[in-house]
């Protein structure tokens, strides 16, 4: 979000303040508004030792905070086009600009223990304004981003999307950002102030990239794993691959979709879009009027953290039942996959979906490389005046009509939109959630295995051949899945 909107929300007295400081060669860190990172507890889990709580924190993006002329806080640096007087080159711009802290409640951010709530709009007493926060997970050192290395691991969290209607997107995703926030001599602020953002869209519009002036209309690119893009009506999870390792810049046609260095469309699963229209939504199998748990597993060719990524699997937990992502589909190419479709992302699935750029730029193996190296966890809430988020929940992708996602309609009819994420955990397959029987007792792995085999065969409708395929799953994967156990024990 651009600075002018934030500046407009600052008290007049604060805007009137001017700052002076001695010359320096680096971008300055302001002292007028302190930076106090909201705390958000997360957990790292192992099958041997259980889950250990971390005192991690959150930081908002560098462009969602006051970023101003060193001598006048009312003059922003983060504008496009850049102020030619303040920013004729990167070094001079760093000397002339100050990056301040921010009051997180003014961004619609609230945390308590392991829960994070994000709001799209805030009311100032007379009108609602859009704040649309985007936050990154900081490590316990409060200096660098927390690296999530999820190859042959899983990530789970609870989510409440009941207050997100058509056109909204409460997102939780991973990007292969530099863990220091691309901290440098000219950018000493780094991750502490939310610098270094990148994703597979390679946007060329940010006035600053990696804390430095974007003088050449560059794009900031990196592999992106969209774990969760959703509202109460539809959801999708999507890997996006790029040609480079880590965060890198693109220029010109490299940043474009058709011949670009990143796969902007990705290879995703939207259950509604595949034909399963009664699976996810209010009162459906996954009932979005109530909170539920989302589990995403990154399975490898040899069940180790050094193998190739071969499958991204989604599970849900609600009302004590563990539910796999539905395998129901009306898509003929997906129906005809060799070995059948299990509601998971595989390279064969991506081929059936004609995800050519995804495959060209590395496919699942490339995505696995990012997961092995480490990615940054990101939270956001947003809507889109350009397309009304129809790619997520409209047309063939969801039940929303053509205008339901118009932000003007959202703020007029349901301005109190929000999403809450909580109980964020990652670690060994099967370690971040439990399968329990009706009395709360731990489930034996043999029972889980039987449930997996029978459930997958029944869900696919492929009969004994599919059941034999499911039976070939290794025990480590089976225990991690714990699929549909509640249905067999209730």
Automatic annotation (TrEMBL):
SUPFAM superfamilies: Concanavalin A-like lectins/glucanases. The chain crosses the membrane at residues 467-489. Residues 1-26 form the signal peptide. It holds the Pfam family Glyco_hydro_7. It catalyses: Endohydrolysis of (1->4)-beta-D-glucosidic linkages in cellulose, lichenin and cereal beta-D-glucans. It is an enzyme of class 3 (hydrolase). One of its GO terms (molecular function) is cellulase activity. Gene3D superfamilies: Glycoside hydrolase, family 7, domain. It comes from the Eukaryota. Keywords: Carbohydrate metabolism, Cellulose degradation, Glycoprotein, Glycosidase, Hydrolase, Membrane, Polysaccharide degradation, Signal, Transmembrane, Transmembrane helix. Its EC number is 3.2.1.-. InterPro entries: ConA-like_dom_sf, Glyco_hydro_7, Glyco_hydro_7_sf. One of its GO terms (biological process) is cellulose catabolic process. PANTHER family: 1,4-BETA-D-GLUCAN CELLOBIOHYDROLASE B, ENDO-BETA-1,4-GLUCANASE CELB. Belongs to the glycosyl hydrolase 7 (cellulase C) family. This is Glucanase. It comes from Apodospora peruviana.
């Amino acid at each position: 979000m651009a600075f002018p909107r934030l500046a407009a929300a600052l008290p007049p007295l604060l805007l009137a303040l001017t700052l002076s400081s001695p010359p320096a060669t680096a971008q300055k860190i302001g002292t007028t508004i302190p930076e106090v990172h909201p705390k958000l507890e997360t957990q790292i889990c192992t099958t041997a030792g259980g889950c250990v709580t971390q005192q991690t924190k959150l930081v908002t993006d560098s462009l969602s905070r006051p970023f101003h002329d060193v001598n006048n806080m009312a003059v922003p640096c983060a504008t496009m086009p850049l102020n030619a007087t303040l920013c004729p080159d990167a070094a001079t711009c760093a000397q002339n600009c100050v990056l301040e802290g921010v009051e997180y409640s003014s961004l619609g951010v609230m945390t308590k223990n392991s829960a994070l709530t994000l709001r799209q709009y805030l009311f100032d007493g007379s009108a609602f304004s859009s704040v649309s926060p985007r936050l990154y997970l900081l490590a316990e050192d409060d200096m660098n981003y927390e690296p999530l290395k999820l190859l042959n691991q899983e990530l789970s969290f609870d989510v409440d999307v009941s207050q997100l209607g058509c056109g909204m997107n409460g997102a939780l995703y991973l990007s292969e950002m530099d863990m220091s926030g691309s901290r440098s001599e000219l950018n000493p602020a780094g991750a502490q102030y939310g610098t270094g953002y990148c994703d597979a869209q390679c946007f060329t519009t940010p006035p600053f990239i990696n804390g430095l002036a974007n003088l050449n209309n560059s794009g900031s690119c990196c592999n992106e794993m969209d774990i969760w893009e959703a509202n109460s009506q539809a959801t999708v999870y999507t890997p996006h691959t790029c040609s480079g390792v880590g965060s890198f810049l693109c220029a010109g046609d490299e940043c474009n979709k058709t011949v670009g260095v990143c796969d902007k469309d990705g290879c995703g699963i939207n259950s509604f879009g595949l034909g399963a229209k009664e699976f996810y939504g209010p009162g459906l199998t996954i009932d979005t009027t109530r909170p539920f748990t989302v589990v995403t597993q990154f399975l490898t060719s040899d069940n180790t953290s050094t193998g190739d990524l071969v499958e991204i699997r989604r599970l849900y937990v609600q009302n004590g039942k563990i539910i796999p992502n539905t395998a129901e589909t009306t898509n003929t190419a997906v129906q005809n996959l060799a070995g059948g479709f299990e509601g998971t992302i595989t390279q064969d699935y991506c081929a059936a979906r004609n995800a050519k750029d995804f495959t060209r730029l590395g496919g699942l193996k490339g995505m696995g490389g990012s997961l092995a190296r480490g990615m940054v966890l990101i939270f956001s809430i947003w809507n889109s005046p350009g397309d009304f988020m129809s790619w997520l929940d409209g047309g063939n992708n969801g039940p929303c009509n053509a205008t339901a996602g118009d932000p003007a309609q959202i703020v007029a009819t349901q301005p109190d939109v929000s999403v809450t994420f909580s109980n964020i955990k990652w670690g060994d397959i099967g370690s971040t959630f439990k399968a329990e029987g009706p009395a709360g007792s731990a489930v034996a792995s043999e029972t889980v295995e039987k449930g997996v085999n029978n459930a997958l065969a029944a869900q696919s409708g492929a009969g004994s051949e599919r059941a034999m395929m499911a039976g070939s799953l290794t025990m480590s994967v089976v225990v991690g899945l714990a699929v549909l156990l509640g249905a067999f024990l209730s």
